[in-house]
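Quick review question:
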């Protein structure tokens, strides 16, 4: 109440800046705060009439009811469409001449009642976030896209109850957040009315409708429904049971952990072909990318684990994000970090054969470092002045660094204390909103530990320390660690290291605090290898001394503990990136390790690194010299591997590295037979990728292969994707240019995963020189891409564009682009700096 009062005064003073913030585009924090202070008890009655096909307009009606405590400022409803989409507005029974400004419907105070208000609007829905296809559509409103489809208060802390009615072509099925209350079929239409929802933020309201198949399942009192469009029945037969079981298990686990029963009225999910993300946690109607859940007949352990983690992640959001939601999107990381934290706990017991500490290490650290080492990095909590910029907050820092930070918090607070605090937090803020500071306050209360300084450095500051060993000689050897702040502002990150020093006669371990000259570890003999941290919890750039580099080149695979090997490999790679380890040294070490590494997770990690050093660090001459050996080694691995999933992993690496004539002939042979040696069938998607790869790499029969692969495809969704991708591997520059130009039109970028895949081909390191002229226009399009694309898309667009390029010209294009635009949006500048890091380092 207090903040609302202060705000009214500042607004009433009619400062121009404030007026701009209030009435300007998007939802500014000023507008959001004012609305939160004055509006409550919001309900939406929404009707949409969905025609057949994807072109005809969708008509809608929204009846919005709410209480108001002040009429001082005009009421703004968000509706981001062109003006003619707004058809009629009536407020409390009186029809008004609609006024729209900057994507808001403006209603003067004089039309509003003292307390209870009812606004009735008829409109044409904007298509932007309705993901319309010929015979299905689905909404994806995160973070602020609900207002592109219907008028609403598009901010996370004005939760509302929704009553949705969909008027659909007969034969369509639909799913939304709440159960179906009634369904009437007349002639060629079906009208489905959904029950009123529990309170939801606008970004969590959702529906999907179209030609879907329904599978239902009940396990021990938990009823679940799944919609899908999979045409191949064996994919459903092979996967449905496990998909339901994983959801059931996650729900029960979360109920137990949080001590809060599943809070919403129903549970369901929809499998969407080429969905933008892996999953999106709409309560009652989670959306998934179909291929993330429908695995091939012999999935790799990694694929099984990823699926289980994804399901646990989205289900965790029901409590962390849906039941308790961040107040403002600057805290979006909080729901993500909790979903990740819970998902790790849920999935681990199901995979007892897996080393989960190693898995955490390999899945989080490399991805977090990849952004945190760049000039474009950001803190976990970022300032957000306007909801329209919320999409830029997402990225590796939220998804990968924040979980590492969360693990530190778990260690500081203790696992049981943290659980207790989480239970209090979820109970106290159920159906409402809360911030990071609210949670930290609860944890401090439970643990009696001050956490402010820790939180400031690890959550509110960007970047990471650079840690270097210092070897002193007094009474033997004394090793301490220097801490440098890459931004040269003398920041200090509180953490302790579990260091290890190996000498000819001994191995010593001990706890060391970086930056503290008195904190050290001693050895009698000269250190041969200094490992800054063996716990897998420390975070930073750990630069190696030359003796350690030499030791690791010869002995890295001899370390017995897989977690330690994982730590060493990650550090070794960071030292490659930082120029301490040479590409040839890294390549040779990885090559030898691939031949002998027994741990599946490390091997999977290494195949990725091997392919990245091969394409991104070796010169063309070095690569051509290395290729025959690499191909021969991997080909033998494909033949020798016992398990189908291992054969697949090696095959994936082979497809990536093969460049010689005989290498491509071998791939061609696999494509012809549609199977790997040993009779392992390749799926349709894998065969499409293989055909396109042969096209990219210039196999002499590529055009024939691509054309006949087209004939083999079953299913329209897959055929459309394939047709979309073909021009990106064309040897004809005119075809590639035409394809690139088609991306200038937002309609050409509608299927974002397809676009990213195509950019991967277009800018592949092998053909990067022929794609340099796409860099500048791609950067020029970035601002528009942010406004039309989904949240991960701008970052993925620029990184897919730049990843394959290593030339001085590419660097110059990027630098000049940024230099010429001093006022370029800060969030996009950071995304470019992240994506161009490898260019700056060359
Ligand atoms: Zn998530």
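Suggested answer, residue by residue:
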């Amino acid at each position: 109440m207090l903040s609302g009062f202060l705000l009214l005064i500042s607004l009433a003073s009619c400062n121009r800046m404030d007026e701009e913030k209030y009435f300007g585009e998007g939802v500014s924090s000023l507008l959001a705060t004012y609305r939160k202070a004055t509006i409550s008890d919001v309900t939406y009655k929404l009707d949409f009439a969905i025609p057949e096909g994807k072109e005809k307009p969708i008509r809608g009606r929204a009846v919005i009811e709410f209480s108001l405590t002040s009429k001082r400022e005009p009421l703004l409803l968000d509706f981001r469409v062109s003006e003619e989409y707004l058809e009629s507005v009536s407020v409390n029974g009186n029809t008004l001449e609609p006024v729209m400004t900057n994507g808001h419907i403006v209603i003067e105070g004089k039309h509003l009642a003292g307390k209870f208000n009812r606004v009735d609007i008829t409109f044409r829905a904007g298509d932007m976030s309705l993901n319309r296809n010929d015979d299905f559509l689905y909404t994806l409103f995160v973070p602020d896209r609900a207002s592109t489809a219907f008028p609403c208060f598009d901010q996370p802390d004005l939760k509302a109850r929704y009553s949705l009615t969909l008027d659909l072509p007969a034969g369509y099925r639909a799913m939304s957040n709440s159960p179906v209350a009634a369904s009437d079929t007349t002639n060629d239409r079906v009208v489905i009315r959904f029950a009123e929802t529990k309170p939801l933020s606008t970004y969590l309201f959702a529906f999907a409708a179209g030609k879907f198949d329904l599978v239902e399942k009940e396990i021990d009192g938990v009823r679940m429904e799944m919609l899908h469009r999979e045409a191949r029945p064996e994919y459903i037969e092979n996967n449905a049971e496990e998909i339901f079981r994983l959801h059931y298990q996650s729900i029960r686990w979360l109920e137990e952990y949080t001590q809060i029963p599943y809070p919403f009225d129903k549970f369901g999910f929809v499998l969407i072909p080429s969905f933008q993300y892996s999953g999106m946690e709409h309560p009652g109607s989670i959306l998934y990318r179909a291929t993330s859940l429908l695995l091939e007949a012999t999935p790799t352990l990694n694929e099984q684990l990823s699926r289980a983690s994804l399901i646990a992640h989205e289900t965790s959001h029901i409590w962390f994000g849906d039941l308790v939601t961040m107040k403002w999107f600057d805290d979006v990381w909080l729901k993500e970090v909790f979903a990740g934290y819970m998902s790790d706990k849920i999935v681990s017991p199901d995979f007892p054969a897996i080393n989960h500490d190693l898995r955490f290490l390999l899945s989080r650290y490399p991805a977090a470092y990849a952004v945190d080492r760049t000039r474009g990095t950001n803190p976990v909590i970022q300032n957000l002045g306007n909801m329209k910029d919320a999409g830029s907050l997402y990225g590796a820092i939220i998804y990968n660094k924040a979980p590492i930070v969360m693990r530190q918090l778990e260690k500081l607070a203790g696992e049981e204390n943290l659980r207790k605090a989480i239970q209090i937090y979820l109970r106290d803020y159920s159906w409402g909103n809360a911030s990071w500071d609210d949670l930290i306050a609860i944890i401090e209360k439970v643990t009696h530990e001050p956490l402010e300084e820790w939180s400031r450095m690890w959550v509110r500051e960007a970047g990471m320390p650079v840690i270097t060993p210092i070897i002193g000689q007094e009474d033997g050897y004394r090793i301490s660690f220097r801490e440098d702040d890459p931004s040269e502002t003398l920041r200090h990150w509180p953490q302790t290291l579990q260091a290890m020093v190996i000498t000819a006669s001994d191995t010593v371990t001990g706890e060391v605090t970086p930056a503290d000259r008195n904190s050290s570890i001693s050895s009698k003999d000269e250190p041969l290898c200094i490992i800054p941290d063996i716990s897998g919890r420390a975070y930073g750039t750990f630069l190696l001394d030359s003796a350690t580099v030499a030791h690791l080149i010869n002995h890295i695979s001899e370390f017995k503990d897989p977690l330690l090997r994982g730590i060493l490999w990650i550090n070794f790679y960071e030292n490659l990136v930082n120029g301490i380890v040479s590409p040839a040294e890294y390549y040779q070490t990885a090559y030898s390790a691939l031949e002998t590494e027994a741990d599946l997770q490390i091997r999977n990690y290494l195949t990725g690194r091997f392919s990245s050093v091969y394409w991104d660090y070796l010169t063309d001459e070095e690569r051509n010299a290395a290729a025959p050996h690499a191909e021969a080694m991997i080909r033998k691995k494909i033949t020798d591997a016992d398990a189908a999933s291992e054969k697949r992993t090696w095959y994936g690496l082979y497809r990536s590295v093969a460049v010689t004539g005989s290498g491509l002939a071998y791939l061609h042979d696999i494509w012809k037979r549609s199977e790997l040696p040993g009779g392992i069938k390749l799926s349709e998607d894998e065969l499409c990728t293989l055909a396109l790869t042969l096209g990219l790499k210039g196999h002499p029969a590529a055009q024939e292969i691509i054309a006949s692969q087209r004939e083999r495809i079953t299913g329209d969704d897959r055929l459309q994707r394939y047709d979309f991708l073909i021009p990106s591997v064309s040897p004809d520059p005119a075809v590639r240019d035409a394809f690139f130009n088609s991306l200038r039109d937002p309609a050409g970028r509608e299927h974002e995963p397809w676009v990213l895949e195509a950019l991967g081909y277009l800018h592949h390191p092998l053909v990067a020189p022929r794609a340099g002229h796409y860099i500048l226009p791609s950067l020029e399009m970035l601002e528009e891409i942010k406004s039309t694309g989904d949240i991960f898309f701008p970052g993925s667009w620029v990184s897919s564009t730049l990843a394959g390029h290593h030339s001085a010209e590419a660097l110059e294009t990027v630098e000049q682009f940024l230099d010429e635009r001093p006022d370029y949006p800060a969030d996009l500048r950071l995304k470019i700096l992240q994506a161009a890091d490898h260019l700056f380092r060359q």
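Why it works: Confidence is low (pLDDT under 50) at residues 1-13. Residues 313, 317, 336, 339 surround zinc ion (CB under 6 Å).
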